[in-house]
Amino acid sequence: MGSKRIEDRASGSSVRLEHEKEHRIRTEEELRKSVASLAEAQRIAHLGNWDWSIADNELWWSDEIYRIFGLDRRNFGATYEAFLNSVHPDDREFVQASVSKAVENEESYDIDHRIVLPDGTERVVHEQAKVFRDDSGRAVRMLGTVQDITEQKLDEQTLAQRRKALEAVYRISTATGISMESMCDRVAESLSELLDVPHVVVRRHDAGKVELIAWAAESELKHDGSFEIACGPCGKVCREAESYQFQGSLKEMFSNSICLNKYDLKSYIGVPVTSGDGIVIGILCAMDYRERAFSEDEVQLLEIFARYVGHEIERDVMEQELQLSQRMKVLGQLASGVAHEVRNPLNAILAISEALNLDLGESPEHSEYIDQIRMQVQRLSKLMQDLLDLGKPILEASMQKESLVGICSSAVNIWTRSTARKERVVRFEKPEGDDGLFVVGDSVRLQQVLINLLENAAQHSSEDGEITLAVSGPARGMLTIRVTDAGEGLDPGSLDKVFEPFYTTRKGGTGLGLSIVRHIVETHGGAISIGNNEPPPGCTVTVSLPAAKE
User: Fold this and answer.
1) Can you point out the beta strands (E) in 407-509?
2) Which one, out of 38, 339, 374, 451, has a CA that is 20 to 30 A from the CA of 515?
3) pTM check: above 0.70
4) Which CATH number fits domain 156-321: 2.70.98.10, 3.30.70.580, 3.30.300.30, 3.30.450.40?
5) CB 541 within 8 Å of CB 521
């Protein structure tokens, strides 16, 4: 009996041990699954937990925190100081102060700060923690969580940037009574703030010239600077009519660029400013001393402002053309009236001088005076004819589709066959395939433009100096004519005045020739400019005319 009871007790103990073993295994399995599930949940949420023994300065991190910080558990010092080494240097003091307040003053620990991964990548984390104290109130332990909120912060920054951008566009677009230049000042300042860059430039292109409208340079607005259309990265944006970015030393990448050699810039983004028909009429660009890639949202932001600047430039051009048209109409009416009123007395004076010449021409004491009268009358007659040309409208019926090469060739032939110019050499350059170089215009008036320019080139160069007339294009919807001489060039102070009525640098001129040229060119929807050759000698007049649409 006794041995039976002993056997039963042994058997019961064995069963209990087996049950306990199975329970322990199930518990451990459930715990393992729970830990694995927690680790997976932390991975998905980018949320890790930590435990810091303040007294021993021992720090424990969950696996997710190691992933967030980009660290290997084996290489981590597992101390508070090791954690601080991963905090962004600019945020380190803030984090230390927040921890001290929580430990010493029982304040909550709930902060956002940046961290730096071993590869240099910056992330933003949110930390929350609770401090535990012993019976004496001394802080002995701190438990907390870390969550990677980088994407959330970026989304918040993007939304804030878009809101600011919309507010800026609204303020600019609803502003009344401001000039196009003032509007571009606001665009440059707004983009400098929105993109957090020190340099934003708004450029306008017109007939081969570059006009700096606004330049936000390190919180200061500028309106002067050296720029070229083909200069550096802006040249590529202009040629390709597309947005471009460049990272690296811009000074080294574009060593020949006048625009970039004064600054140690490392990032560039430029977008074209286009007209309604897609022609590049300017560039909007931003530059930074930091090497950075501009996001897709930032590119779109620049493009929004570029479209608005394009509308404003076109509006400004239309207003100027309207004002010019009105001024030219009034000037034309005045010029025609003056010319007609003066020509009748001039014709009478000329007839009397011819009669005097018949009676007194043989007399030496009178011939000199008669010649002076005739010369001055002829000069005034030429002035009256120029005034009539300046006020003469171009009739719509005379605007036909014409070959620009044909117009240029005819003008060269007419000018070189004139009695005074038979010995002059004009080199006529044209593209090999010139079949598509057509304009809509008055061929006679356009020939007059070229003859005037050839005459002007001859007047400012030596008799044996070559004159070149070159035709090129189309480029961005425009055809170009360049008349180049090898003379002494013009004084830089005269370049902006040569197209003004009655301004002349040569003896005997009326000062209306280039004014007439500009009037005809602009009436055809074109533009004209003049500049000294680089390198010297001589100068070049550039005429741009819209290419005829097929």
Assistant:
1) 426-429, 438-441, 467-475, 478-484
2) 374
3) no
4) 3.30.450.40
5) no
| Torsion of the alpha carbons at 237, 436, 396 and 526, rounded to the nearest 10 | 30
The domains of the chain are located at 1-44, 46-148, 156-321, 394-550
Measure the CA–CA gap between 514 and 531, rounded to whole angstroms. Answer: 14
Q: Could you tell me the two tokens for 126?
A: 């949110």
Distance of CA 276 to the CA centre of its chain: 17
Look at residue 341 in the predicted model and tell me its pLDDT.
62
Same fold: 46-148 with 156-321:
yes
Distance of CA 56 to the CA centre of its chain: 59
The pLDDT assigned to 280 comes to 87
342 φ/ψ angles, rounded to the nearest 5 degrees: -85, -30
Cα-based distances in Å from 91 to 1, 85, 113, 114, 496: 80, 11, 6, 7, 55
Q: Any residues with CB less than 8 A from the CB of 334 and at least 6 apart, and which?
A: 391
pLDDT in the model for residue 38: 46
Q: What is the mean pLDDT of residues 151-180?
A: 76
pLDDT tens track for 41-92: 455 557 888 999 988 888 888 888 899 999 888 888 778 888 999 999 999 9
Task: Tell me whether residue 89 is exposed, middle or buried, using C-beta atoms within 10 angstroms of its C-beta: 0 to 12, 13 to 18, 19 or more.
Answer: exposed
How many helices (H) and strands (E) would you count in the chain?
13, 18
Torsion of CA 205, 211, 213, 215, to 10 degrees: 110
What CATH architecture applies to the domain 394-550?
Answer: 2-Layer Sandwich (3.30)
Amino acid at site 100:
S
Q: Tell me whether residue 390 is exposed, middle or buried, using C-beta atoms within 10 angstroms of its C-beta: 0 to 12, 13 to 18, 19 or more.
A: buried
d(CA 397, CA 442) in angstroms, rounded, equals: 9
Greatest C-alpha distance within the chain: 178
Please provide the CATH number assigned to the domain covering 46-148.
3.30.450.20
- CA 406 to mean position of chain CA atoms: 37
Checking if the pLDDT of 272 tops 90, the result is yes
CA distance 465 to 226: 31
Which residue reads 């171009």 in tokens?
Answer: 394
- Among residues 91, 102, 90, 39, which one has the least CA distance to residue 66? 39
Percent of the chain predicted with pLDDT > 70: 74
> Hey, which of 13-27, 296-310, 431-445 has the most confident mean pLDDT?
296-310
> Residue 259 above 60 pLDDT?
yes
Output the DSSP codes for 117-133.
-TTS-EEEEEEEEEEEE
| Amino acid letter for position 99 | V
